[in-house]
Amino acid sequence: MSAAVTFILGGAASGKSAYAESLCFSFGKPKVYWATSQVFDDEMREKVAKHLAQRGGDWITHEEPFVAAKVLGNLQEGQICLIDCATMWLTNHLLADHDLEAETETLLQAIDACPAEVVIVSNETGLGIVPENALARRFREAQGRLNIAIAARAQTVVQVTAGLPLVLKGSLP
After folding, report:
1. Can 51 be counted among the known catalytic residues?
2. What confidence tens digit (pLDDT) does each residue in 66-117 have?
3. DSSP codes, 124-157
4. Active-site entry in 51, 62, 93, 98
5. Which domains occur in the chain, in start order?
């Protein structure tokens, strides 16, 4: 199993990514950033550039929208990897019409086998209303199952709301 898994949950624009980045800095280890987003338009390009500037040059960044093993399989003990984010990773697979259960299992296996510490950011999608369309409902259910599976593996789970962390499981250093 991974050296340690920390799971950071929150709503959109809740401050979860910034919190996760600051947590990674606090560990004092070489930092790897697994960016799961795909850039299809100028708005997303600007968002990615903003995130890169905020993080600074102290990270090794891997842009990989699908294959967990490409990043997690090459990490070493003594490193820390921030996965930002599991929600975007799942969205990529949903929109590519991949088998979500199989892809989720592959991701979980890669997390379990990773020798580096892993910090995973994900959106909490179960706090809103029931979506009105089938695709959104399918996504919400798959995201909920993914979050449950990651939280079960994680030693620490933190909910971030309005930039404020609340530890749900375990403890922080």
Report:
1. yes
2. 999 999 999 999 999 999 999 999 999 999 999 999 999 999 999 999 999 9
3. --TTSPPPSSHHHHHHHHHHHHHHHHHHHH-SEE
4. 51
5. 5-169 (3.40.50.300)
